[in-house]
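Something for you to look into today, if you have time. Could you write out one complete protein record for me, on any chain you like? The space below this message is yours for that.
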Amino acid sequence: MPVESSVRLIDPAEITRNPENPRLIFREDELVALEDSIADQGILVPLTVYEEGVGEFVILDGERRWRCALKLGLTSVPAIVQTKPDEVTNIMMMFAIHKARSDWDPLPTAMKLEKLGEILSRRLGRDAKESEIAAAASLSRGEVRRYRNIILLPEKYKDLLLAELLKPRPQQKITVDLVLETTRGAKALWQRSVISDDQQWDLVDAVIEKFVANLIQSTVDPRMLPRIARAVERGELSLKEARKVINKLIDDPKYTIQDAFSHSVEKIDFEHGTEQLVDRVISRFLEHVEREYELGGGLEEKLEALLKAVRRLKNANN
């Protein structure tokens, strides 16, 4: 990376944003707060820029400060001027500078990471490895994998997420994690033949709509979908039952993921526990007979109650 640098006062009108900045969304409420701070105390941390040409500078770090300076009509801002990096180094620097920042939005970052991977691949003459992309972007391999999963989302969902990012934070509902978890669950159900290829996206659409309507309130609820798929794979849940609850989840606007899970996996688990309990009771009854114990009044009363409960259960399922 460039090491030569100097600090100068530069007219913000001579500065332009860096087209490689993974940060695309700048929320008005956050800019207003920063603008107030700059108006009161000035720019305390210099921008970092490189010189593109005579009197032309490009931002490496400090785009929000630069935007506020323009709005405030400042005639100069402090800036550390570095030598111009090449294309790969430019993107690498953007990731390195912002590594510790938690306010980067995942989708724009994923899009810029994809570009970094393409440039690295051209430079290497082969597909860049995950570890090489991670090192270049100062990210872990797990982070790179997550960003790649975001890029693999259908365009309609990436457009939806970008539109959501343009809203003020309190109005945002749909998150990258919600869409990723739901598509992962839908894919697992498709792989077990619970739903068709087209139904994958019908299911994702249904879950997103119910989340927006507050019918589904937790972004982790979609994690129940792969559990339904695994229950089918293990033979614990029939395809017929799985298809029944998933189709209802798609078609019934009031039916939730929790409902589908409760009527499938939870139901099977509960029945299995009941079976184990009945086995123990039967074994106990047989032991009672073998010992030739007479029925006590209390036990006989409990047996009558048990018979009524069994008849009620059987009648409820007829």
